[in-house]
């Protein structure tokens, strides 16, 4: 009888433990088999990426779920503060990624993924005395582009400007200034400025701002207000009853503008339209010696959890199989650009021309400077661009550059371990 009571008590204890741990699946020796990927793509882009994730099933029993948001930084910060970070996050700011690596939030990548961390998108960082790779580019974009309708003369362009972008308004203007500085002063000066080693009040940086204002020319108050409130993708097409599909700035600005400075991703807006993309160097009053330099951006995957499967997932996401699947799932005008020339690239005519610049023609690729800056400085840069656009006077510019220098000194005064190296901004194309 005593043995029966003892067995019953053991069974009760086991069942009680199961009840306490049931949400974690501990009774069956199970754990959460789903890896969470947080990323910036929504709509058709998000659906294509999620479809690729679903097709990556390798029979291990692990599944993947994708969370797409346009408020990526805010969402990630909230999850980190709640102690519930995603397993993998995809960010376009190496400044943010550097901060997370230095704070011990990121896990170094396995060798196979690190081997695909082509420059300048993913420089190794020296954290805790060891140089390691903490993120890898999944897709990349070319920013040094000017868009215009076929047959439109480049002699006297009327520039389209749309600076609104929800919480990150202003970045289309920072792209202008970055691209101008790169072509006027060259990659070395650009790198020093992007990494906080050059003052904002340096004459070369100041000249980039005034060149932008000169290129845009005199603008009426109505035109300025329109640019400050218009989205960078323009207004919805009136023919679209749902009001969802934008028609691009070239079809949205009144009176009609002729040229737009924008990243390669905008090609999806002009799919099917007679719109041409050209390298920006010829429009920016730069030195011909710097024509082979291009500003680029990227979406990088980093691991935020201790689950080894998350590191394996990033390795797979950066591999050829995932890229082939992603390309097959995306609409033609949304097919991503990849950093390796041997990877599948877009097949539409505009996409092929842009891919050739990224992987074959460019001598130097320089990562988006504001995305290389600490987030607090990047955000101040965004705000300053909006303020200068509304009042492009020399006095106002001097005030804004002084404010940016103050933020720079507070945000990046050190050269300690883990800081983004100067070599991590501009480099010859890799892959």
TrEMBL record:
InterPro entries: SBP (IPR006059). Residues 410-431 are annotated as: Disordered. Keywords: Signal. Gene3D superfamilies: Periplasmic binding protein-like II (3.40.190.10). Residues 1-28 form the signal peptide. This is Extracellular solute-binding protein. It comes from Streptomyces alboniger. The lineage of its organism: Bacteria, Bacillati, Actinomycetota, Actinomycetes, Kitasatosporales.
């Amino acid at each position: 009888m005593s043995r029966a009571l003892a067995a019953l008590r053991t069974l009760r204890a086991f069942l009680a433990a199961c009840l306490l741990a049931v949400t974690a699946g501990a009774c069956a020796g199970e754990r959460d088999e789903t890896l969470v990927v947080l990323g910036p793509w929504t709509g058709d882009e998000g659906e294509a990426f999620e479809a690729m994730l679903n097709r990556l099933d390798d029979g291990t029993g692990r599944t993947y779920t994708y969370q797409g948001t346009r408020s990526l930084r805010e969402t990630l910060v909230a999850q980190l503060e709640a102690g519930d970070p995603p397993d993998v996050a995809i960010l376009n700011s190496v400044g943010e990624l550097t901060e997370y690596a230095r704070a011990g939030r990121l896990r170094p990548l396995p060798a196979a993924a690190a081997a695909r961390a082509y420059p300048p998108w993913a420089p190794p960082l020296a954290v805790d005395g060891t140089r390691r790779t903490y993120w890898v580019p999944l897709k990349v974009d070319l920013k040094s582009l000017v868009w215009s309708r076929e047959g439109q003369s480049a002699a006297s362009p009327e520039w389209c400007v749309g600076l609104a972008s929800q919480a990150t308004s202003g970045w289309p203007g920072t792209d202008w200034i970055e691209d101008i500085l790169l072509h006027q002063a060259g990659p070395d000066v650009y790198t020093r400025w992007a990494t906080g080693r050059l003052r904002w009040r340096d004459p070369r940086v100041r000249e980039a701002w005034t060149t932008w204002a000169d290129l845009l020319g005199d603008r009426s108050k109505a035109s300025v207000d329109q640019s400050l409130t218009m989205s960078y993708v323009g207004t919805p097409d009136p023919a679209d009853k749902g009001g969802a599909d934008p028609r691009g700035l070239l079809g949205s600005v009144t009176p009609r503008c002729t040229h737009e400075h924008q990243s390669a991703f905008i090609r999806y807006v002009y799919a099917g339209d007679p719109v041409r993309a050209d390298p920006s160097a010829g429009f920016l009053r730069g030195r011909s010696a710097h024509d082979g330099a291009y500003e680029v951006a990227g979406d990088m995957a980093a691991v935020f959890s201790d689950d080894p499967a998350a590191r394996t997932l990033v390795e797979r996401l950066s591999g050829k199989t995932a890229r082939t699947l992603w390309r097959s799932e995306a609409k033609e005008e949304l097919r991503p650009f990849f950093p390796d020339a041997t990877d599948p690239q877009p097949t539409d005519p505009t996409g092929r021309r842009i891919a050739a610049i990224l992987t074959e023609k460019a001598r130097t690729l320089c990562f988006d400077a504001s995305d290389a800056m600490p987030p607090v400085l990047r955000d101040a840069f965004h705000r300053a661009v909006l303020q200068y656009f509304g009042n492009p006077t020399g006095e106002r510019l001097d005030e804004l550059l002084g404010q940016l220098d103050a933020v720079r000194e507070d945000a990046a005064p050190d050269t300690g371990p883990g800081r983004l190296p100067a070599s991590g901004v501009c480099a010859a194309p890799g892959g």
